[in-house]
Amino acid sequence: NSEDVVVPSEKQDDVEMKTVGGRVCQADIIDIKGFNKESVRIVFGHLAGYTEKLEQCSDFLMLSDMLLLCNKYSIKNLVDTIMARIDNVSINIDNLVAAVEAAESLEEVADFESTSEDLYQRCVGYARSNLASWQVLINFVLN
Question: How far is it, in rounded angstroms, from Cα 138 to Cα 136?
Fold first, then answer.
């Protein structure tokens, strides 16, 4: 989608300008390291008004990465939205391990301890209900 692309525009008063989604704005460059590129795109896209990708995201690791990004850069207005998205994503056999990993990564931030604990408890509940027999457990481990 061409609206998501940042394209160089002309310089005005020695400040580089960019055109983003048809709007001209100052091109401040922030070097963001240690986060998934797609997580960064979704967070900053959402801030620019492109909400669909966050609303459709069901990847626990990406959602937890977004929360950690928001925490690091003090983007407080998205935290509740991302937490709600984590709460709304169903846990299944395909994303159970990712959900546990996400819970573990979030427990390191005091503001996200509750979200981490809730997610971890959902994982435990899913595992107890769906991996109760040794046959199912072995199949889960092997796949």
Answer: 6
